[in-house]
Amino acid sequence: MTRLSYDDYLRHLGSDSARLREVLAGCDPEARVPGCPEWTATDLLGHHGGVLQFWADIVEQRPAGPGDDWTEPEKPTAYDDLLAYHEEQEARLLAALAAADPSETAWTWSTEQTVGFTFRRQAHEALIHRLDAEQTAGTPSPLDAALATDGVEEALAVMFGGGPTWGTFTGNGRHVRVDVADTGASIWVELGRFTGTDPDSGKDYDEDDIAAGADPGREADAVLVGPAADLDAWLWRRGGDDALRVSGDPATYDAFRLVVDQAID
Q: Are 122 and 233 in a shared domain?
């Protein structure tokens, strides 16, 4: 298992959010964000501040969701005010999570409807956007290996492989094993297809997909190996694959790479 304790998720959420703000405080507000080229530093700061506010609201009002009439709140426009807004919303979310039981029911966009989902998801959200801030300012610092390892599993199992309940994943029996070289973790992924009809839009889906799961008890068709930080950054399209090594069936790896070859904001 790659999971951290909820106390650790809370600690990382606080430290990475603070680091993001510290870095952006000394950054040109119009500087471009390499991982999200359409964003400026101002956009990044406002985006993450808004994420913090949204999830603080959700945890505080649990188990109620955002409601059909939810609209994004107004944010400050002046950069200094936006920094203060980010700090305020960070404090709100940290306090709301610290006061909650992770097992309590709370709305999420995932199949997991607990406060614990927000502990984990927002720790990784803060980590990746901290990386965005550092890349924008040119001030890199190491990613925590344990958190990044869990980030690899979360990216594969939730962000890429966590399909909605209205659809069905059908595996094709081909597996990729992702080995995290510096922590010894291995995450297994099966390739397949996702099919279903979105009840809101009426759109039909039939597309290549992945699902993370248990060791199938057989050799992997392809193996991807790399340090935790490099794997996590690569999956989020915040880093290249120079430090990663691939072995096994090229067609299997290429099919896997096509599924994860998309940016996540």
A: no
CA atoms within 13 Å, Cβ hemisphere of 62: 23
Q: pLDDT tens, 198-243?
A: 998 999 999 999 999 999 999 999 999 999 999 999 999 999 999 9
Q: Distance between CA atoms of 169 and 192, rounded to whole angstroms? A: 7
* Cα 59 to the center of its chain, rounded Å: 18
Token digits of residue 75: 């944010």
Calpha distance 103→114 (Å, rounded): 6
Number of domains in the chain: 2
> Domain range spanning residue 45?
6-137
pTM value is 0.96
CATH for 126: 1.20.120.450
Mean pLDDT of 163-172: 92
Quickly list H helices, 61-114.
79-98
Angle between helix 41-60 and 79-98 (nearest 10): 30
Backbone angles phi, psi at 255, to 5 degrees: -65, -40
